[in-house]
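Interim report to the steering committee. The following record documents the input for Nucleosidase (188 residues).
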Amino acid sequence: MLKILVTYAVQGEFVELKWPDIEPYYVRTGIGKVKSAFHLAEAIRQVQPDLVLNIGSAGTVNHQVGDIFVCRKFIDRDMQKMKEFGLECEIDSSALLEEKGYCTHWTEHGICNTGDGFLTELTHVSGDVVDMEAYAQAFVCRSKEIPFISVKYVTDIIGQNSVKHWEDKLADARQGLSNYLNVLKERI
């Protein structure tokens, strides 16, 4: 049986997986890169999963509320400023996923841009969606050689919405993610 560790930042993003032949484990990581990395590392130590699946809400600049992106590429926008000094700020989790044959039929490709600030003003942001946890989780999983993928539901348009709009859209995100994972995909 395949052990899948499902991560989500806040209770409003929780979605139960109803796939056959899996043993799901769930961990609420909290908001932000540090908390997320810590709680994920602890859960990995306890569960020893075959795959980590991050699910949650995200903001965007160029897309619509309700869009879903499957992210295998991650950017740390806080460290992007240090790229010219040779510091890493991008992770691609595709190779390990392909090697294991996980999520290969999930085609809604996107790039997730992670940072510790909730973006409310329009700025130049690389990627399709922005969040506050996925890059850190991708980093932890890569260091432990565990396949990682992130599915994000767009809840807000950066520069048009506020934290309050995000909170109001969490129920929509939960429903959209549940439909995507349990109806459209139904399996890993």
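Residues 31 and 113 are 15 Å apart (CA to CA). The committee is asked to note this result when reviewing the revised timeline.
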